[in-house]
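can u do me a favor
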């Protein structure tokens, strides 16, 4: 089982403090209303396996010229690093005119618990205003972007539709399109980018945990997804933003990639990231996925499961989950830390529903589970006792159509 570098998130201190003063105002440049969507030097061929990966952020020659003389806003969290340095610190050291930092769920330095309200503040290291895009304001306002010409997005994704960093990216692109700002995506590998699976989200179930008609495992990097959002005109009013993607060098969709930093507090290992697409569906049920333990998204269990299950645990508050589901209750289930590479599966979900001693309470709310799944049909099929093969057959036509559309937006050689 792989783990992220021990010097990552856990060693960071909270660097934000309340700040009620807005950023210093300067005269805004006239917006460039000419639509541009560009990709800087995308790889065209399958590169040798020995070719080292270089994230978009590491390729200064590709994007620093685009930032020269510009007022820059950065959308980042703790994964936005160049080596061991935060991207913000690196850009400032190179003379880039960073004016404001935007942080998604978990905050700029990535330390807030899941679902916690993030307050606006100031980064103690740089002195820059650090504004939250999680909570009451998910989309940058005109006031937030008044002193910005270009937005740089650099956040590690894990390739699942309900991981909210891609929703933040959507709103950043939308605000940029409406306000005439440029967007630069510094791309990073997708650790679950080697396959595509699950039902495509139906429009009626669009929420912050699922904004796009894509499957649960979408098989795209954030740069490729940004191109799809723009190309399919999914932004409000069918607008498109001025988009530039800096691709990862040496990456293909067959590349298996262990993240150097944990992407959020409750995905602490590479194995938890691999299990996340299948286990996150339990968040709409009474089954705990291990929030409030040392092994989130690597164990599952509930008080309503048989006590003969081979493993048990008791969630309790910790920094990553201050009020975990089933807090203080003995949960009976499984330890999945030793399971192999399973990809996206419904087998755990079907098993735990069938074994539940209180099926009426298994789904916490119809809409909660359905929002994660992207439809109401799968929940109804589970209750009706359908098999995984029967359930998959229902979503296959939509998944096939998505796979065909996806090919238009790929920047990297695809998996075989």
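np, heres the sequence
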């Amino acid at each position: 089982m792989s783990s992220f570098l021990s010097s990552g998130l856990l060693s960071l201190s909270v660097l934000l403090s309340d700040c009620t003063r807005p950023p210093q105002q300067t005269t805004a440049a006239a917006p460039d209303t000419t639509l541009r969507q560009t990709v800087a030097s995308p790889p065209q061929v399958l590169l040798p396996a020995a070719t080292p990966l270089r994230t978009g952020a590491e390729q200064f020659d590709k994007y620093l010229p685009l930032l020269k003389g510009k007022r820059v806003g950065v959308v980042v969290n703790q994964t936005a690093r160049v080596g061991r340095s935060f991207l913000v610190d690196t850009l400032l050291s190179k003379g880039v005119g960073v004016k404001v930092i935007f942080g998604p769920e978990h905050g700029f330095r990535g330390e807030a618990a899941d679902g916690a309200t993030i307050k606006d503040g100031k980064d103690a290291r740089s002195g820059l205003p650090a504004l939250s895009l999680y909570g009451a304001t998910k989309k940058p306002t005109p006031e937030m972007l008044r002193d910005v010409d270009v937005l740089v997005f650099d956040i590690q994704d894990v390739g699942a539709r309900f991981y909210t960093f891609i929703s933040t990216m959507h709103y950043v692109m939308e605000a940029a399109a409406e306000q005439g700002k440029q967007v630069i995506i510094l791309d990073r590998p997708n650790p679950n980018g080697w396959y595509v699976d699950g039902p495509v989200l139906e429009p009626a179930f669009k929420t912050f945990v699922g904004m796009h008609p894509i499957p649960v495992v979408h098989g795209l990097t954030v740069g490729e997804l940004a191109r799809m959002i723009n190309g399919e005109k999914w932004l409000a009013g069918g607008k498109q933003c001025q988009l530039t993607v800096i691709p990862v060098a040496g990456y293909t969709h067959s590349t298996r990639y262990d993240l150097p930093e944990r992407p959020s507090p409750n995905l602490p290992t590479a194995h938890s990231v691999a299990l996340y697409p299948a286990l996150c569906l339990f968040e709409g049920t009474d089954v705990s996925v291990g929030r409030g333990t040392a092994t989130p998204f690597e164990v599952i269990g509930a008080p309503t499961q048989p006590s003969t299950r081979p493993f048990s645990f008791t969630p309790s508050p910790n920094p990553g989950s201050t009020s975990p589901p089933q807090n203080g209750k003995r949960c009976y289930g499984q330890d999945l830390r030793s399971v192999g590479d399973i990809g996206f599966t419904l087998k755990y979900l079907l098993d735990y529903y069938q074994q539940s001693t209180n099926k009426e309470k298994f789904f916490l709310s119809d809409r909660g589970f359905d929002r994660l799944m992207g439809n109401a049909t799968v929940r109804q099929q589970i209750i009706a006792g359908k098999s995984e093969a029967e359930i998959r057959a229902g979503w296959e036509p939509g998944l096939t159509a998505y796979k065909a559309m996806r090919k238009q937006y790929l920047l990297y050689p695809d998996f075989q």
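The chain is about 20% helix and 15% strand. hope that helps!!
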